[in-house]
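Aim 2 progress update. The chain analyzed this quarter is reproduced below.
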Amino acid sequence: MKESILDVLLYLFEHYFTEDVSPPLGDRAALSSGPLFQELNQAGFSPAEINKAFDWLDALAEQRPSAGIPRANGPIRVYFGPELEKLDVQARGFLLFLEQQGILDAGQRELVLDRAMALDQDELDLEDVKWVVLMVLFNQPGSEAAYAWMETQMFLDEPEPVH
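Predicted structure tokens:
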């Protein structure tokens, strides 16, 4: 069985969100016995992980960064404790790069960090963080250009070099 919330989220993202098909989310009681739950269960995900992934998506949908935070040259983020343990140097550097390039603003960065820390993994590498960024940008109104850029970087054979 697959044992990661991120695995469930990636399955949903690849099978529903990127195909412009809305997953049949909605009433949580109906979800626990609905066709989406059954599909995820048949794909090898445990009911506990499926429910955690639904909770993760609910929390993402409820959170919106506050408007008015500048897109670039915002406050510097200082990582501490559990964040340092969970996010490797490349992942933290990538988030800084995205902010400096105007792909993420400070509020979106905090949302990415919140959602990354909510995953049940002890460590997240650069690839994991890229997926979290992609899912957050997908969920943010007005972030279509940033999402398109990020999606291009994820799926190109040779992404643009990070300077």
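The chain is about 60% helix and 0% strand. The first helix runs from residue 5 to 15. These observations will guide the mutagenesis experiments scheduled for the next reporting period.
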